[in-house]
Specification:
Layout lengths: L4 H8 L22 E4 L9 H5 L5 E4 L4 E4 L9 H5 L5 E4 L12 E4 L11 H9 L5
Antiparallel strand pairs: 1-4, 2-3, 3-5
Length: 133
């Protein structure tokens, strides 16, 4: 009946088996999957990642130049990162902090610069081949 006493004494004088998580973090494993990261400056908003996502966690708006991911639906399969033609999606090794509400992370890029429009006189001159030089 007193077979547990050596175990109790050993545990009293040894370090705890767990870490105090928020203050002491473990180094990530080599191929640990944490969450999807995006380099929005390289993104061309082609939507390939959204088409390849098996659960539909990614939404890309080309005109609005925004990229969104629902982290609660993401299963970290990596299909989006593999299919990205510009390789702007990466699988990070750090976990996202715990969330108590379902949210969607939205990342927006630089707005499109308007193209310079030609006036009617410039277009008619270029079509006729005349110039004022």
């Amino acid at each position: 009946m007193l077979d547990f006493i050596p175990v109790v004494i050993k545990n009293l004088f040894s370090k705890p088996a767990t870490r105090n998580y928020p203050s002491v973090k473990r180094m990530p494993y080599e191929k640990q999957k944490g969450h999807i990261k995006i380099d929005i400056d390289n993104c061309i908003y082609c939507g390939m990642c959204a088409r390849k996502c098996p659960v539909g966690a990614i939404n890309v708006e080309r005109l609005g130049r925004s990229w969104a991911i629902d982290r609660f639906n993401c299963i970290m399969c990596g299909a989006c990162a593999e299919s990205c033609p510009k390789k702007c999606l990466l699988i990070g090794s750090e976990y996202t902090p715990a969330a108590y509400e379902k949210t969607t992370d939205i990342v927006t890029g630089k707005p499109l610069e308007p193209k310079p429009q030609q006036t009617k006189s410039e277009t008619s001159e270029s079509q006729s081949g005349t110039s004022n030089a």
